[in-house]
Amino acid sequence: MALDFYLNFNGNCREAVEYYAEVFGTEQPKIMTFGDTPSDPAYPLPEEAKSMVMHARLTISGSTVMFSDVFPGMPFVAGNNISLSMVSKDIEEIKSAFHKLKEGGKVGMELQETFWSKCYGSLEDKFGIQWQFNYDNGEVVY
């Protein structure tokens, strides 16, 4: 298991991830936009969100760094726009860490199935650290 880094941007994620790819000489990033995701009629996607980055990833000096724009209307605070991401092939390890870290913290999203993972969740621990948890079943959806 490795801890990955997740950076959020306020509408300029594409520019940032392409810049970092050039600076660190990495592969060209694969970029998934909010418009690329499965639609949900109960939650229509605002037009301004369709071209915004939902997810991109680079490997920089052996570390995985992931990127996303914040969804329109969601809070963005420069300096607080980084989180640690626990990615594991062991779903019980994810569940255990999530439930321990949520004690005294605030859950952003309970562990649940998403279109990209059988088990994903997010929280802020009691020390104010942002965490994301993602089960890696070996299938890449982006």
TrEMBL record:
It holds the Pfam family 3-dmu-9_3-mt. It comes from the Bacteria. Residues 6-132 form the PhnB-like domain. This is VOC family protein.
